[in-house]
Design brief:
Layout (H helix, E strand, L loop, with lengths): L3 H11 L1 H13 L4 H13 L2 E5 L6 H11 E2 L2 E5 L6 H5 E6 L4 E6 L6 E5 L6 H13 L1 E4 L2 E4 L5 E6 L12 H4 L2 E6 L5 H12 L10 E2 H13 L4 H15 L13 E3 L3 H17 L7 H12 L4 E2 L1 H5 L4 H11 L4
Parallel strand pairs: 1-9, 1-10, 2-11, 3-6, 6-9
Antiparallel strand pairs: 4-5, 7-8, 12-13
Length: 328
């Protein structure tokens, strides 16, 4: 029998750094609380994040600030059409003195990777990221190298100006735990942003968290209690994306070309546990699942031409599924 009280006590101890991290990020990021929460979920659930939004919404700044607040290595890679896989993973260099090849590791060998405008690089560069994201390892020559822990890819993409971009393959998109769509700030927030940026000294976050704390917290996140009813709820939501008619959503059958994979179910369960952890709770409730569901599923449902013709988006489908599937 799971002792909920004991888990709650552990979470109280291990989640204390969350508030410190939020305070540091609040120094730099005005508003965008939704984005900050999702960054923390990705960090705690050991999942990669894809941020989408028009230029100037502090996507890069948020990721950079998160890395600065954690005592960890950070690499920023600007993706461009002429980028090569070796620019990411590294290459073999011939050493004349030793008369042998040595490995020169690329920027991918860091804890936090900011893949800026990821959709600007060609397919062979995208495929170089796949092994790193899934297996947490990189092969250079005939040797496989482990990547450091924690390892987190935070990618940004621009939904406007699609000229010269390469849409991400489904296999790669599926490896992102969450896809976060960022919207404009409110009027009041924008005034604060102007004021802050016109100040002589722009605030910088201090290092308040160690990588050991992050790795410990990830272990505790996995121990958050999830009832069988919640597990069934997650499975029912994911199956509704594959077989909408069975869920009473026959109108979406011609709209969906493919549903979410089992990786979506795992991501939804882990993200819900991380969300409960951030709320300092030792058990998952249906609201946790619903809170993260859209970010987990929006990039995992394939739409047909009929859906595009009728302006049906994956957000519409996920919202309808959440309204239809019975809550435990």
């Amino acid at each position: 029998m799971t002792d909920i009280r004991e888990i709650n006590e552990r979470i109280e101890r291990e989640s204390a750094f969350i508030e410190l991290l939020k305070l540091e990020l609040d120094k730099v990021i005005i508003g965008q609380q939704y984005m900050v929460d999702r960054l923390l979920i990705g960090l705690l659930a050991n999942g990669h994040l894809l941020l989408e939004g028009v230029p100037g919404l502090a996507k890069t700044l948020a990721i950079k600030s998160l890395a600065q607040a954690i005592d960890a290595n950070f690499s920023r890679i600007q993706f461009t059409p002429d980028l090569l896989p070796a620019d990411l993973v590294g290459t073999m260099i011939y050493n004349q003195k030793q008369e042998q090849f040595t490995v020169r590791k690329g920027p991918l060998f860091s804890n936090f990777i900011l893949a800026d405008e990821i959709n600007r690089a060609p397919a062979k560069v995208q495929s170089a990221l796949l092994e790193a994201m899934q297996e947490r390892q990189v092969t250079i020559g005939d040797t496989t190298h482990k990547l450091p822990e924690p390892f987190l890819v935070l990618a940004t993409q621009n939904p406007v100006e699609q000229e010269g971009t390469y849409p991400l393959p489904e296999a790669q998109v599926d490896r992102f735990m969450l896809k976060i769509v960022i919207s404009y700030p409110s009027r009041e927030e924008e005034r604060k942003i102007i004021r802050q940026n016109l100040n002589t000294d722009f605030p910088k976050p201090n290092k308040v968290v160690s990588t050991e704390q992050i790795l410990r917290a990830r272990q505790v996140v996995r121990e958050v209690y999830m009832d069988e009813k919640i597990e069934s709820y997650i499975v029912n939501i994911v199956f509704a994306t594959r077989f909408p008619t069975e869920a009473g959503l026959a109108k979406f059958q011609p709209m969906i070309s493919f549903g979410a994979s089992p990786r979506a179910s795992i991501s939804l369960a882990l993200a819900a546990k991380a969300y409960a952890f951030i709320r300092r709770r030792g058990y998952v409730i249906p609201e946790d699942v619903r809170a993260v569901c859209l970010d987990v599923l929006r990039h995992r449902i394939g739409l047909t031409y009929e859906a595009e013709a009728e302006n049906i988006t994956t957000e519409n489908i996920v919202a309808e599924i959440l309204n239809t599937v019975e809550v435990p």
